[in-house]
Fold this protein.
Amino acid sequence: MRIDNHTHVGFDPLFYMQGWSPYCLDLPRLFNEADGFNIDAFVVFPFVAYTALDMAAIKRNRIQLAADADAVPYEFENRRLCNDILRCPADWQSRLWPFLIADPSRKPEAQVRAWQALPSEYRIYGLKFQTHTIQSPILALLDEGACMLDYAEAHDLPLLIHTSIRAEDKWSQCSDILRVVESRPKVRFVLAHSCRFHQPTLDRVAQLPNAWFDCSAFITHCICAQRDLPAVAAPVDRFESDYMSPERVLQDLAQAYPDKLIWGSDVPYYSIEYDRLQIRSSYRREVACLDALPAPARERVCHRNTLAWLGSIDTSSS
């Protein structure tokens, strides 16, 4: 079985209004992108910026919650994803494993109430946090957002968290995420984007029984390493490999962390255009790295390790 653990569906108003890409993807395009690559299941979640933010501020590239007293982060996006999946053909539904996306610092209790109000036929597989774009500190999960971790623990839901190692990033630092992981040993976590190839973080993930990391948007991050861009760890702290060959890097990661690496594409974020940064890749290129792995390693990173993180899932229909 081949599982893509990291896919976005929906629309991002911030990327759209700022002229950045990507900013949208629907379920038919997701299946079209993956067609022919033998992907059996997709972990899916909404895009990052949400419609409960103040749209006038979004146009100015500023993040603030709308003044409307009823505005709840991601309430619309999570319900829209729910409805999209429930309208899908049965064979698509069985292959879509939805995560709810969350903002840990803005109205977290109201978000949990919105989760509880979703239709009973909607199965939730986990929670997703991308706190960099929405400027919401992941450490809020240890304070006002702790109710979200309570919910995850009560419902045995894993978490997937966007990572950063940029010094100026106050919202999604790898070191802060590790504090959250260590605080909840009963909750399973994935740190996204190969932990930006930050060797100390990768080594710490390897030590924690409730932590894994994924390689989403892998080609993009290898290109960042080739260019020594600050999106990945500086050479002194970078996982040692040949970043001119993403296939080699993935093989080295799979060998160094055989039980911790999980494969995901980050569709459609394998290509990105953001201010002066422009990197192009494709679903085909992401899968090519996976397929270059020896068969036992490939089975671990896109199946066994993924299910260990996700927990108990009935895959009999997939």
